[in-house]
Design a protein that fits this description.
- The N and C termini lie far apart (about 65 Å).
- The protein has a six-stranded parallel β-sheet with strand order 5-4-6-7-9-8, with helices on both faces. The chain has a six-stranded parallel β-sheet with strand order 14-13-12-15-16-17, sandwiched between helices.
- The protein has 23 helices and 23 strands.
- A hairpin with a 2-residue loop joins strand 2 and strand 3.
- The chain folds into three domains: about 200 residues, Thiamin diphosphate (ThDP)-binding fold, Pyr/PP domains (Rossmann fold); about 160 residues, Rossmann fold (3-Layer(aba) Sandwich), CATH 3.40.50; about 190 residues, Rossmann fold (3-Layer(aba) Sandwich).
- The longest helix is centred in the middle third of the chain and has 21 residues.
- It is globular.
- The chain is an alpha/beta fold and about 625 residues long.
- About 35% of the residues lie in helices and about 20% in strands.
Length: about 625
C-alpha cells in the first residue's frame, strides 16, 4: 500500500529495498555497492528476510552457503577482490547459525574489510520467551548471542522498531565505506520486528551513488614527515595492503622511483610491486626475505604506508634498529601513531602524492640503493634454488609454489591462509601483476582458503571472468573447511585448489620442535588418541563434491595436472603429499616473540627458551 510520500513495507523489505538502491562509482561506472549475499535460512530469517530477498533475487543474488562461517570468509574474499569498494551481506538464522559468523566477523575486523551481517534475533516482545535457540542470560534479558559480535564489529545495532533502519542502514554503510574505520557491520533482526510494517518515506529508497572518501593529510603532518625523511641516509618504505585498497600502486612506484627509496612489502602488501621492480627488495619480517630484513635492520628513517605494523611485519619489533625513526601514513588514526611513529593521517594515494611533491630534490644515496639491490639479487638466487625440484629432494610447499608461479597467468589470483603456507608463499611467490595475491594473515584463519577464494572468484568473474583463482591449502585447513568446493561447483565459479598434504598441522609441529618440545598432537601420527594413523583420500572426497580431482606424486606431475586444471571448465582439486620436516624455507626469518616455558623438566625446552630469549635484546620498547 502506498501514498504520495510513504511506502508501507516490513522491516525486512525496507532493508533489502534500501540495499538494492545503493550504488558506488568505480572508474566512472556505477555499480551496486552490495554485490548480493550469502545465506543459510532458518526459522530466524527465512519467513521475513527470505521473503524480501526472493523479490530481488536478480538484483541482489543470494548464494546458498554450506556453513555460516565459510559464508563470512567468502564475503571477505569478495571484498578483498573488489579492494573494499563493494561488499556482500551474510544472513543467518538465530542462535548457532548466527554465532557461527563470529569468527568471520573477527577476520573481517582484523583485516579492515566491509561485510554486512543480517542475523536473526529473539523476539522484541519477549512474549514467547524462551524461544528455540535462545541463549538466556538470567540477569540481563537483553543480553544474547548477538552481543558476542560487539567486539568484532565496527558497527553494531539491534533493530527494535522498523523506523530504526532509517538511521541504522546509512550509518552501517558509512562505516563499511570509511577507509579509516572499515570493517564488518552487524544488524540484529528480532524475528517479530522483521515482519512489522512502517510507512517509510519514499526518498529513503531513492538511488544514491557513493564514493570512497580520500582524506587529505594535514599539511603540518606532511611537513613534519618530509623534514624527517630529508635527513635519511638509509630510507626505506614499508608497503602495506592499504596501498592496494587506496588504488595507489602507481603513486608508490612514483614515490620510490623519483626519490630512489627501496621498498619492502608486508604480507598484506604482497603484489604492490612486481618481483622484477628494481626497488622491490622483498617481503619483510618473520615470513620475509633476507634482503628486506637486511636493509630493515640498517634503515634510519622508515616510511610505513597502509600497514598496521603487525608483529610478523616488525619481527615483534626486532627487525629494525632501535634508533630508526618511523613515519606512518595511514587512513586510520589508530594505525598511524603506533610505536611513536610520526603520524600522517590520510589516504595513501593523495598522501604519497603530497610526500613525493614535497620531497622534491631528495634522493637516497646511491650506495644505499645498490646495497639493497645486491641483497635482493642474492635472495632471488636463494628462491630459485628453493623452488626447484629433482635430485630426490622431498616434495615441499616451495616447489608447488614455484610450479604454479611459472604456469599461471599474470592476472590469476592466488589465495592462501594460516598454517605454513603464508610464510612459504610470501617468501617464494614472485609477483607477476599488482593486486593478485591474497594471503590472509591479518587473522591467520585456517579454513579461509577455499571459502575466501570462492568469494574472490565471484568478484573476479564480474570483472575478469577469464582469469583463474588458485588456492594453496594444507590438509589441516582443508579438513577444517572444504564444503565450498561444492559451492564453487554448484555456482560454476571455477577454482584451482592445490591440497598439499603434510599429515597434520606440520608448521605448528615445527614450532613445537623449535622450542624444544617433542612432537605431540599436531601431526596425525603423533596424536596420542589415534591408535592407528591413516591418511584422508582427498581426491575421492573432492570428487564426491563434484570437482575434477587427481593425486600427483611430485612437482613435475603437479605441473601437468595444473595445465589440465587451467583447461577445465569447473573446479579442480590437485593433491600432493609434502614432507612435514624437510623442504621448509629456512632463510629470511626475523625473530618472533612466542611464549616459551621459563622452567621445565626438559633440558631441551630450557635450552630452547634461553636461545629464544637471547634475541630479545634487539626488541624496541615502543620507541
Amino acid at each position: 500500500m502506498t501514498s504520495q510520500n510513504t511506502l508501507t513495507l516490513t522491516t525486512a523489505q525496507a532493508i533489502i529495498r534500501w540495499l538494492e538502491n545503493q550504488y558506488i562509482e568505480i572508474d566512472g561506472e556505477e555499480l551496486r555497492v552490495c554485490g548480493g549475499g550469502f545465506g543459510i535460512f532458518g526459522h530466524g530469517n527465512v519467513t521475513c528476510l527470505g521473503e524480501a530477498l526472493y523479490n530481488v533475487r536478480d538484483a541482489l543474488p543470494l548464494y546458498r552457503g554450506q556453513n555460516e562461517q565459510s559464508m563470512g570468509f567468502a564475503a571477505a574474499g569478495y571484498a578483498k577482490q573488489w579492494l573494499r569498494q563493494r561488499f556482500m551481506f551474510c544472513t543467518a538464522s538465530a542462535g548457532p547459525g548466527t554465532s557461527n559468523l563470529v569468527t568471520s566477523a573477527a577476520l573481517a575486523h582484523a583485516n579492515r574489510l566491509p561485510m554486512l551481517l543480517l542475523c536473526g534475533d529473539t523476539y522484541a516482545t519477549r512474549l514467547p520467551d524462551p524461544v528455540l535457540q535462545q541463549m538466556e542470560n538470567f540477569n540481563d534479558p537483553t543480553f544474547g548471542v548477538n552481543d558476542a559480535f560487539k567486539p568484532v564489529s565496527r558497527y553494531w545495532d539491534r533493530i527494535m522498531h522498523p523506523a530504526q533502519v532509517i538511521q541504522s542502514l546509512p550509518a552501517a554503510l558509512a562505516t563499511m565505506l570509511d577507509p579509516g574505520d572499515c570493517g564488518p557491520a552487524f544488524i540484529g533482526l528480532p524475528q517479530d520486528v522483521q515482519g512489522w510494517t512502517y510507512d517509510y518515506p519514499d526518498e529513503f529508497f531513492e538511488k544514491r551513488v557513493h564514493r570512497i572518501r580520500r582524506q587529505m593529510p594535514d599539511e603540518n603532518e606532511i611537513s613534519d614527515a618530509v623534514a624527517l625523511l630529508r635527513t635519511a641516509q638509509r630510507p626505506m618504505i614499508i608497503a602495506g595492503g592499504g596501498i592496494q585498497y587506496s588504488r595507489a600502486v602507481d603513486e608508490l612506484k612514483n614515490l620510490a622511483e623519483t626519490h630512489r627509496i627501496p621498498v619492502v612489502e608486508t604480507i598484506a602488501g604482497r603484489a604492490n610491486l612486481l618481483a622484477t621492480h628494481p626497488l622491490n627488495i622483498g617481503p619483510v619480517g618473520v615470513t620475509g626475505s633476507d634482503s628486506a630484513n637486511a636493509i630493515a635492520a640498517e634503515a634510519d628513517v622508515i616510511l610505513a604506508v597502509g600497514t598496521r605494523l603487525q608483529d610478523f611485519t616488525t619481527g615483534s619489533w626486532t627487525a629494525f634498529s632501535k634508533e630508526a625513526r618511523f613515519v606512518s601514513l595511514n587512513a586510520a588514526r589508530h594505525d598511524a601513531g603506533k610505536h611513536l611513529s610520526l603520524p600522517v593521517v590520510g589516504d595513501a594515494k593523495v598522501g604519497m602524492q603530497a610526500l613525493a611533491a614535497a620531497l622534491s630534490g631528495y634522493s637516497a644515496p646511491e650506495s644505499w640503493v645498490s646495497k639493497a639491490q645486491s641483497h635482493r639479487a642474492v635472495w632471488d638466487s636463494y628462491v630459485a634454488e628453493n623452488v626447484s625440484y629433482g635430485d630426490n629432494r622431498p616434495n615441499s610447499y616451495a616447489q608447488a609454489i614455484g610450479v604454479v608461479n611459472a604456469l599461471c597467468h599474470k592476472r590469476d589470483r592466488m589465495v592462501a591462509a594460516a598454517g605454513g603456507l603464508p610464510a612459504e608463499v610470501t617468501a617464494n611467490w614472485r609477483t607477476l601483476d599488482a593486486g593478485t595475491v591474497d594471503v590472509e594473515f591479518g587473522f591467520s584463519c585456517m579454513g579461509y582458503e577455499i571459502s575466501g577464494a570462492w568469494g574472490a572468484r565471484i568478484a573476479q568473474s564480474e570483472r575478469e571472468p577469464d582469469r583463474d583463482t588458485v588456492v594453496f591449502v594444507g590438509d589441516g585447513s582443508y579438513l577444517m573447511m572444504n564444503s565450498d568446493i561444492y559451492s564453487s561447483v554448484l555456482t560454476r565459479k571455477k577454482l584451482i585448489i592445490l591440497v598439499l598434504d603434510n599429515g597434520g598441522f606440520a608448521v605448528i609441529n615445527k614450532l613445537q620442535n623449535n622450542t624444544g618440545n617433542e612432537s605431540f598432537n599436531n601431526l596425525i601420527a603423533d596424536a596420542p588418541t589415534v591408535p592407528e594413523a591413516f591418511g584422508v583420500d582427498f581426491e575421492a572426497h573432492a570428487a564426491a563434491m563434484g570437482a575434477n580431482a587427481e593425486t600427483v606424486a611430485n612437482p613435475a606431475e603437479l605441473g601437468e595436472a595444473f595445465k589440465r586444471a587451467q583447461a577445465a571448465d569447473k573446479t579442480s582439486v590437485i593433491v600432493m603429499k609434502v614432507d612435514a620436516y624437510e623442504g621448509w624455507t629456512t632463510e629470511g626469518h626475523t625473530w618472533w616473540e612466542c611464549g616459551t616455558p621459563h622452567t621445565s623438566t626438559s633440558e631441551k625446552v630450557r635450552a630452547a627458551h634461553e636461545e629464544w630469549e637471547s634475541a630479545r635484546v634487539r626488541q624496541r620498547k615502543g620507541v
